[in-house]
Amino acid sequence: MKKGFIGLFMLTTLLVFVGCSVGQSQEVGKTEKLQASAAAKTSENVEKSTVPTVFIHGYGGTANSFGGMIQRLTNAGKTQREMVITVQTDGSLQVDGQLSKKKNNPSIQVLFLANKDNEWNQTKWIYEVLKYVKQQGADQINLVGHSMGGVSSLRYLTTYGQPEDAPMIKKFISIGAPFNDFDDTSGEQSIDNLLQNGPSQEASRYVDYTNGIDNIPDQLPILLLAGKLAEDSTTDGTVPLTSALATYPLLKAHGNPITYQVFTGPHAQHSQLHENLEVDQAVADFLW
C-alpha cells in the first residue's frame, strides 16, 4: 500500500514537471516567434539602397563613438557595416573593407588618428575621404556627424559645397554639434526665439557658416539632434541647446528642408547620445 502511494506520488510529480516544461517551451517558442516577427517587420520597413552613410565622430572620438550605433542598426537589418576609413596624421587613408554595391544601406565609419585636431583639418580630411568614396563608385552619400564631427561636416558643406570629385550629399544629420561654440545663450533668448531669429550672440564659427551658406545645396534635407539632461535643463552637459540648434533658422531661410529633435534624460548626455536607442531610431527613420 505504501509502495503504491509512493509510485502514484512520483507519477503525479513527473506529469506536473513535464507539463511545466512543455508550457515553458511553448512560451520560449512564442517569444522567439515574436522577436523574429519584429525583426522581419523592422527589415521590411526599411528602404534599401546602395547609398552609403558616412559616420564622423567628435573631438577625441574612437571606434567606439559610432561603433555601437552602426552595430545596433546592422543587427536590426537597417544598414550593413562595410568599410572603416582611418585618416592618418599625414592625411593618408587606411581602408578596411570595401563597398559591395548591394542594396543594403552600407555604412562607412570614419576615424581620425589625430582625433583632437582642429575642425579645419578635419574638414580637409572629410573631403579626402569623400573623394575616395566617390572613386569606389558612390555618387551619393548620407553624412552623420556627432559633436565636432557635425561641426566639421557642416564646414565641409559651406566650404566645398558640391565638388564634382566627391559624392553628392543626399541627407545630413548632426548629433549634439556645437554650431555656435559652447556659450549657453538661453538666459538671453528662448529656444522658440532662437529657432525663429538665430543666436543672440554669433560665434566666429557661426559667422563662417553664414558666409558660406550659399555653397550648401538648398534642397539638402537636414536633421539636427540635440540633448538635454532634464526637462528644465538647457544643455546635454557639454553642448547647449542654443548651440546644437543654432543653424536651424539659417538653413531654413536658405531653403533646406530641416527638422530637429531634442532628447531628454541621462541618456541624452552628450557622449551618450550616440548610444541612445531613441537617437538610433531617429537616425534610421530620417535616412531610410
From TrEMBL:
Keywords: Hydrolase, Signal. Pfam families: DUF915. Residues 1-18 form the signal peptide. It comes from Enterococcus dongliensis. SUPFAM superfamilies: alpha/beta-Hydrolases. This is Alpha/beta fold hydrolase. The keyword Coiled coil does not apply. It comes from the Bacteria. GO terms for molecular function: hydrolase activity.
